[in-house]
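thought: fold this chain, then report.
action: predict
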Amino acid sequence: ATLWKENRESSKPKSNGQILAMAANYEIKKGVVDSIKRLPSDHMLRSVLEPLPAARQEVETLQKSFNGFFGFDNQATERVFKEKAGAYTVIHLAMHGLLDSKRPVLSSLAFTEDHNPTETNFLQAHEISKMRLNAELVVLSACETGYGKFEAGNGIASLARAFMYAGSASLVVSLWQVNDFATAEIMKHFYSNLAGGMKKDEALRQAKLTYIEYAEGIAMHPAFWSPFIQIGNTDSVKISRKQGNTFYWGAVLAIIVGLSGFGLLWRRKQQNRRTEA
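observation:
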């Protein structure tokens, strides 16, 4: 409630109206010589991270329609995120989320490993809370990003709360481990709804309904579509679309109108000739 009150009273963030989206790659292998040493616990965590092929597709879909920065492979690292995150209206992170139920401040998001000497590529909750973000919406397309241990007088300790401390007015997070493909589908519909002017909560609700409409078999089970929830400010958010899409569809519309007009004139001429004959 305290965070909600602070977000309501704070001024609207100044950002560029664009999306920063990243899809981590867990299949990049380290070189023969690795001069950067990691803690055994970091090695253990990274060794169990499964590839997320649909995460890349998720971000590529956003890249086709919106303006912004879209990071893949070595451009989806903790260092790059920290450098760029403060300028964007929407932040979308498609990667594994790691919950530490005993020490919530150590819960983290797993970025691509680039062997940076100063960043572990596990962005932890305590680091996030110290950042200064201007995002109107943060989407954590990862596992258990909204779940955490309840602490008396402190609420739910989670990655979501860390982003709210950092200044994000609104988040979309998950309550349990999510399916890679189902997540990609829901996010595709979610952003389409946002771009159409829907409020954040309604955009997510409609995205789930669309997913259910086309899902089949076990994929219709709530475990696949219901983990994502929206937290914080529900107002709509304006996202900068790529002009190419607008020009393309405008050109198509102009051609259709032109052909229709030409067809109408041709038919009138044919009718006039028949009348004269």
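thought: worth noting. The chain has ten helices and eleven strands.
final: tokens above.
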